[in-house]
Amino acid sequence: MPPSRHFAFYLCCLAAILFFLLGLVWTAWFFWGALIFGALGAVGIWDLCQKRHAVLRNYPVIGHFRYLFESIRPEMRQYFFESNQDGRPFSREKRSLVYDRAKNIEGNTPFGTEYDVYAQDYAWVNHSMVPHAHGTQDLRVTIGGPDCTQPYSASLFNISAMSFGSLSANAILALNTGAKRGGFAHDTGEGSISRYHRQGGGDLIWELGSGYFGCRAQDGGFDAQKFAAQVKDPQVKMVEIKLSQGAKPGHGGVLPGPKVTAEIAEARGIPIGKECVSPASHPAFSTPLGLLNFIKQLRELSDGKPVGFKLCLGHKWEFMAIVKAMLDTGIKPDFIVVDGAEGGTGAAPVEFTNRLGTPLRQGLSFVHNTLVGAGIRKDIKIGASGKLISAFDLASALCLGADWVNSARGFMFAVGCIQSQSCHTNRCPTGVGTQDPERQKALVVPDKADRVYHFHKNTLKALSDFTAASGLNHPSEFRPEHLFIHEGHRAVQPASAAMTWVKPGALLADDHDIPGYSLYWRIADPASFAPLKSVSEAKFGSSAA
Fold it and tell me: How far apart are CA 204 and CA 341, in angstroms?
């Protein structure tokens, strides 16, 4: 049966034949109809054969209406095709900017800023009166602490976690092929390493979620032998333990049996066609000390590759408990990735998406400050993720303490995602978020891999230009005083004044009173994620008193 998405194309072909026959037996006027619908049929044939537009390959003829509406006016393009879930439009930085950079299109626009510069969420980086020359800096960072014997030189901009299964095979292959060409890293997501990651040949960050896919024992726990066999692949550069993610922090997952295809089962190391549960928390550890011992074990099994963890910040005392455990044991992760609650490209419960977890700005600065206050920041690199797409997004994250940035949404746009929000239906119009083998074919890997490469290259060029305009030699020189923000209901201030910043080693002093930090530090227990006492007891004394 012909696919329904080709209905308009087949209708045009049938109409052309019908009008042609009517012209033969009735009146020559029907030949005009045959000519019109024949031309539309020819357009459909061209749509199916061309390789640049996945929408047209999946929706020949009718797909042109999208581009027609998009081309009428910039305002229509913005409001019809660049809106997020609550209806507020994304600016071109959040969608069109990606498309332009991925296609190597000049990004200059007339008539100034599109933002309301007086809006509560407007932020900016100041420029310098003496901008530097636009150099060709090595925009990389070395990740690996004192116990790491195979440090990794990572790009400042990498592909964030998106699993094979949530993304199609062609999307994974295009992303990884682009990463290989551009020399940047591709996070596998919780779904482990698939044949399409390996085929692309790009650097991999292997993410281990609570399901331990790729190194999963029969009981759902962690299998050290399976992990050791896979992690020693030279393509795997780092290992990232996923504690939580911005889209749905504190939430597990269930992969229904019908979705466990042979390829997904192969990548995840699970039985074909059987339901697979990822618990909300990790079976391998239940305390901060347990987490650090797990990190040590993974580092030893990987022969010294960088091992770290990713989290969306939740209870502050829990993260501080991990830091206290680092001080007690001397075991430290090589890196920490902070995911903002506003991030996440996958489907999640609305309440989790909108009202659970700490946004990136606050989470990133807290993690950075806690490590600084504990005197161990120099040994641990920090990555940031959560709706980070433009050069300004990267610069602002670096200002707040990040060493590098990961992006999921930006690279999804680069491979053709139009944010139709149909990922969970398996009917993605561009072949990005579907396991339908026919819909996937619309995504032509070589073309989209080029776009991934160009988006990465042009975004880093824009960051380099941003850095030079700010009077700095390298993006690593961005500091809180360079970023101007609204924080709460205060007037616009540099982040250095609007937010609290902890001095090196300050949390190790016997008596400290740092707003937003000291209280949580006192109740953090390195032996447990539970606090030593409640916040109210620590602040006001016991209820009996």
Answer: 24
The pTM of this model reads 0.88
Please state, in angstroms and rounded to a whole number, the distance separating the CA atoms of residues 182 and 177. 9
**SS3 call for 259:** helix
Residue 227 shares a structural domain with residue 349: yes
Q: Are residues 73 and 151 in the same domain?
A: no
Residue 191 CA: distances (Å) to CA of 93, 137, 195, 256, 260: 29, 34, 12, 14, 11
What total of structural domains would you count in the chain?
2
Is 124 within a domain? no
- Asked whether the beta carbons of 393 and 462 are under 8 A apart, the reply is no
pLDDT digits (tens, 9 = 90+) for 342-378: 876 666 666 666 778 899 999 999 999 999 999 999 9
Same domain assignment for residues 165 and 232: yes
Domain that holds residue 262: 140-485
Residues 6+ apart with CB under 8 A from 164: 172, 188, 189, 191, 192, 194, 196, 197, 263, 264, 267
Q: What's the CA gap between 207 and 214, in Å, rounded? A: 10
Query: Number of C-alpha atoms within 13 angstroms, CB side, residue 109?
Result: 12
